[in-house]
Amino acid sequence: MTMFRRIVLTALLAAGLAACSGDKTDDAVAVSEAIAAIPAPNGGNWLDVAAVTPEGGHQIGNPDAPVKLVEYASHTCPHCAEFDAEAGETIKNKYVASGVVSYELRNQIHDAIDLTIARLARCGNDPSAYIPLSEQVWQNLAQIVAPVQQNPALMENAMKLPENQRFPALAQQLGLVDFFAARGIAANQQLQCLSDFASLTEIADRSEKQSDELNVTGTPTFFINGRNLGTLRWAELEANLQNAGAR
């Protein structure tokens, strides 16, 4: 059974919220010399450069950066929210803005709410919006998940509806339609995105495939230049970025 089918058939919120953290590696990135800042072309800012990667992630920064940071995260993972609150601005304004580091955010889907948010954050078809929208979700995570924590049957009942109604109903019951509408994605556009069962299946199944292939056992899991460093605190991750040459 695929991850998508498990999400549709079962209520996974409790497991998703509890299963954020994964394995941690003790192997640090080897120490390299500091890499000089790389100016953006035409006097621009690397933070304004965004793209969807072949892996389905959303990347900001210099696409040819010598240090490539990838984070696998869940939108319903409190540890991911805590990490972003502590480190998100530093990663962007110190490391990505220098042109030395690119940052890519990929999904590890934990539950139906997570999948709903992952689809809505893509709904505007603007690669530059995905990371800011994800950050705003994490900033409001307690409010977003509260209805299901108070009434676990809410998600289970939504998943029993006909296919094209399940995720629109869940989004409306959680207030996500209003949340994303306030951030520039029209309600009717959101409901159309969430009615597209094929796109939801693609996100969930890609998450499962990459997690299996790359040994992503929890979130947030970090990669630097393709090396899986596991789940790290910010101080540990920053040390590895600096070892890789980002100063």
Topology overview:
Elements: H1 3-9, H2 13-18, E1 50-52, E2 58-60, E3 67-73, H3 78-96, E4 101-107, H4 112-122, H5 130-139, H6 141-150, H7 153-158, H8 163-174, H9 176-181, H10 187-195, H11 197-214, E5 221-224, E6 227-230, H12 234-243
Parallel strand pairs: 3-4
Antiparallel strand pairs: 1-2, 2-4, 3-5, 5-6
Helix pairs in contact: 3-5, 4-5, 4-8, 4-11, 8-10
Organism: Croceibacterium salegens
Pfam family, one: Thioredoxin_4
Signal peptide: 1-21
Describe the structure.
Helix 4 (112-122) packs across helix 8 (163-174) and helix 8 (163-174) crosses helix 10. 50% of the residues lie in helices and 11% in strands. It has 12 helices and 6 strands. It has helices spanning 3-9, 13-18, 78-96, 112-122, 130-139, 141-150, 153-158, 163-174, 176-181, 187-195, 197-214, 234-243; strands at 50-52, 58-60, 67-73, 101-107, 221-224, 227-230.
Short summary of the structure?
The protein is an alpha+beta fold and 247 residues long.
Give the key terms.
signal; Thioredoxin-like_fold; Thioredoxin-like_sf; 247 residues; Thioredoxin domain-containing protein; six-stranded mixed beta sheet; alpha+beta; 6 strands; Glutaredoxin
Helix and strand element order = HHEEEHEHHHHHHHHEEH
Separate helix tally: 12
If you compute it from the alpha carbons, what radius of gyration comes out, rounded to the nearest whole angstrom? 18 Å
* The named CATH superfamily: Glutaredoxin
Low-confidence spans: 9-18
Mean pLDDT: 92
CATH class (first level) name: Alpha Beta
- State the end-to-end distance: 45 Å
Spatial shape = globular
Q: Considering DSSP H and I runs of 4 or more, what fraction of the residues is helical?
A: 40-55%
According to DSSP, the number of beta strands is: 6
